[in-house]
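Supplementary Methods. Inverse-folding protocol.

Structures were first reduced to a C-alpha cell string of length 318. This string, shown here, constituted the complete conditioning input.
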C-alpha cells in the first residue's frame, strides 16, 4: 500500500473504535519561557500510554482483512510492542509474539505482561531484538510487524497530524520526536497536504542522530550503532520508507541527555505530566528558547508516558 493523505484519513476511520483522539493542552509555562504559543499533544493518554498504538492498529487491521487468523511477531523497545499487543487483542484472532531487549524499561515490560502475548526478552539493544524477531518469523511463518518502516504503520501514526490540524488549524510549527521515523513521516505528509507552510521539526537524541545524518548524507542509516540514551524509544536507525517520505520536508534538532532529563523534570513540575524521555524530547527546543520558535504557534507531540520509576527517581533525587 502507498502512504498517501487519503490512506491516513482512512486509517483514522479504521482505528477510531480503539484509539483516542488525544487532547491538545495549552501550556502557559512553556509559552512564557519560549516566547511561542505552545500546545501539547498528549499521546501519553492513549490506551497503552503511547502513540504507537495507532500504527499497530492500522497495520493489524490491514493484515487481518487478508488473513483473518494469523500470527505476528515484532521487535520493540517497549511501546510498539504494547501497540501490537493491544491491536491483536482489539481485532481478535491474532497471536502475537513480542521481542524486547533485556534492558527494556521495566514499566513497559510490566505493561506488556498484562496482555495475552508471548513476550521474549533477547539482545542488548533494539537491533538485536529485531534480528531475533526476524529469525523467529523465518522459522515459524509469523508475519513480522515493523515498528516504523511500514506504510500501514506510518499511515496510522499520521492520524496524529489529522487531529492536530482539526483542533488547531493555525499551527505553524510541529515539534515531533524522531527515532525510526514512522511518526514524523506520517505527520509531515499530513502537514504538506493541509498546511504546506507549517514547519515540521524533528527532535532526536544526540546519542542517536540517525535521522539527522541520513537526511544530511542522502542515505537511510538503518541500523545505526547508537550511544546509550534514556530515550530508548528513539534509539537506533532511521527507516528507509520514512527517509524517502521526509527528505526535503523536515528539519532535525538534537537533544543532549542532560536536556532530556531536564525536559522530563519540567513537564512533571510545571505541567504535572509524567512523560518518558522519548516524548519529553519534543519540548527541548522550547526550553532552549530557540529564536526560530518565538512568536509562533507550536504543537509539541508528547508521544508517550511509560516512564520507568527508577529513572524518574534518579531525575528527582540526583
Amino acid at each position: 500500500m502507498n502512504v498517501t493523505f487519503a490512506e491516513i484519513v482512512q486509517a483514522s476511520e479504521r482505528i477510531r473504535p480503539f484509539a483516542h483522539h488525544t487532547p491538545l493542552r495549552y501550556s502557559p509555562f512553556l509559552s512564557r519561557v519560549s516566547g511561542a504559543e505552545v500546545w501539547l499533544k498528549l499521546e501519553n493518554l492513549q490506551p497503552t500510554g503511547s502513540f504507537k498504538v495507532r500504527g499497530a492498529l492500522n497495520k493489524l487491521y490491514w493484515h487481518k482483512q487478508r488473513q483473518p487468523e494469523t500470527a505476528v511477531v515484532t521487535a520493540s523497545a517497549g511501546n510498539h510492542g504494547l501497540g501490537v499487543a493491544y491491536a491483536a487483542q482489539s481485532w481478535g484472532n491474532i497471536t502475537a509474539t513480542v521481542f524486547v531487549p533485556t534492558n527494556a524499561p521495566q514499566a513497559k515490560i510490566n505493561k506488556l505482561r498484562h496482555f495475552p502475548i508471548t513476550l521474549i526478552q533477547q539482545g542488548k539493544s533494539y537491533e538485536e531484538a529485531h534480528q531475533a524477531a526476524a529469525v523467529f518469523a523465518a522459522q515459524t511463518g509469523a508475519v513480522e510487524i515493523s515498528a516504523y518502516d511500514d506504510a500501514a504503520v506510518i499511515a496510522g501514526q499520521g492520524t496524529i497530524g489529522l487531529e492536530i490540524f482539526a483542533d488547531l488549524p493555525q499551527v505553524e510549527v510541529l515539534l515531533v520526536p524522531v527515532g525510526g521515523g514512522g511518526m514524523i513521516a506520517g505527520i509531515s505528509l499530513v502537514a504538506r497536504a493541509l498546511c504546506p507552510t507549517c514547519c515540521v521539526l524533528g527532535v532526536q537524541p544526540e546519542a542517536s542522530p540517525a535521522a539527522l545524518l541520513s537526511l544530511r548524507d542522502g542515505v537511510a542509516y538503518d541500523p545505526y550503532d547508537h550511544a546509550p540514551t534514556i530515550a530508548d524509544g528513539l534509539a537506533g536507525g532511521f527507516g528507509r520508507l520514512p527517509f524517502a517520505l521526509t527528505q526535503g520536508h523536515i528539519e532535525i534538532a538534537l537533544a543532549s541527555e542532560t536536556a532530556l532529563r531536564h525536559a522530563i523534570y519540567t513537564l512533571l513540575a510545571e505541567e504535572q505530566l509524567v512523560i518518558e524521555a522519548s516524548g519529553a524530547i519534543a519540548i527541548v527546543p522550547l526550553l532552549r528558547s530557540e529564536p526560530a520558535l518565538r512568536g509562533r504557534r507550536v504543537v509539541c507531540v508528547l508521544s508517550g508516558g511509560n516512564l520507568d520509576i527508577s529513572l524518574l527517581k534518579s531525575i528527582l533525587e540526583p
